Amino acid sequence: DQQVKQNSPSLSVQEGRISILNCDYTNSMFDYFLWYKKYPAEGPTFLISISSIKDKNEDGRFTVFLNKSAKHLSLHIVPSQPGDSAVYFCAARRGNKLVFGAGTILRVKS
Amino acid sequence: EPEVTQTPSHQVTQMGQEVILRCVPISNHLYFYWYRQILGQKVEFLVSFYNNEISEKSEIFDDQFSVERPDGSNFTLKIRSTKLEDSAMYFCASDTQGSPYSNQPQHFGDGTRLSIL
Q: CB of B56 within 8 Å of any CB in chain A?
């Protein structure tokens, strides 16, 4: 299932700098997009989301941008902190189900 | 903060045996879900459940799988005759009003690691 793609398997960022995680999708029927964070041996933890009718949503250090014409969304974390080191999943909703990307491993170096 | 809880954290079962994975969704949530993640692969949707019936299921969710809400708090996934390829992390999730009608995120448990020998 290639409907949601996260093309960067990993990203390394210095503490205090901005982390930008990207996600592309192919299905124009998706109506809601979410970012989840996952630590080893834990389940995905909801981080932030955006409706398909918006182009930006901000929550503290986390901002999600949606470009519908490009079918692209991104998650910005600023400033990045070592505790942000985790796997980040992009997910898109269609009907009752979420379709996940493969995840990006974020490492924030102190 | 309320959370979704799953038991057991790890289940080892012989191929061909039945297994039941258990979940306690967040108490005021109405929609329940099962997902799985095979090692090295994406998280995949299995099934959604509302008002004591399946509302959507994927092609993975065949006749070997069933879900049940046996009481007011538990939500279970049963695999009738396990196969080697059923080995995966199984995640339960729930949300408040149901995805098609509201923008409420699904909240996930920590998963059950199912190992089929």
A: yes
B31: left (phi over 0), alpha (psi -120 to 50) or beta: beta
pLDDT tens digits in sequence order for chain A, 110 residues long: 579 999 999 999 999 999 999 999 999 999 999 999 999 989 999 999 999 999 999 999 999 999 999 999 999 999 999 999 999 999 999 988 999 999 999 999 99
Q: Looking at CA atoms only, how far is residue A3 from chain B in angstroms? A: 12
Task: Please state, in angstroms and as integers, the Cα–Cα distance from residue B35 to each residue in A55, B4, B111, following that order.
Answer: 28, 13, 9
**B56 to A72, A83, B68, B72: CA distances (angstroms):** 26, 36, 14, 21
